[in-house]
Amino acid sequence: MAKGSTRRRTAPKRALIGPLVMLAGGMALGVVVWHFLMLEPPRPPGARWTPSEQLSRDDRRALDDVLGARRSRP
What we know:
The chain is an all-alpha fold. The protein has 2 helices and no strands.
């Protein structure tokens, strides 16, 4: 049998391009969904910004103590 006349069987190019297109499309869709989920809800006109979570006085004092101790370290 002649080895030179045998054709090497490889996958067609579309077998590589299809999954890459699906992967790129999924990544693009993931970025769009992530961006949509990270948007803040719209505020009513004239409303001032207020944090959604507020600390009690004791919690604020404890946080200030921790941050103060962290700042004083070299």
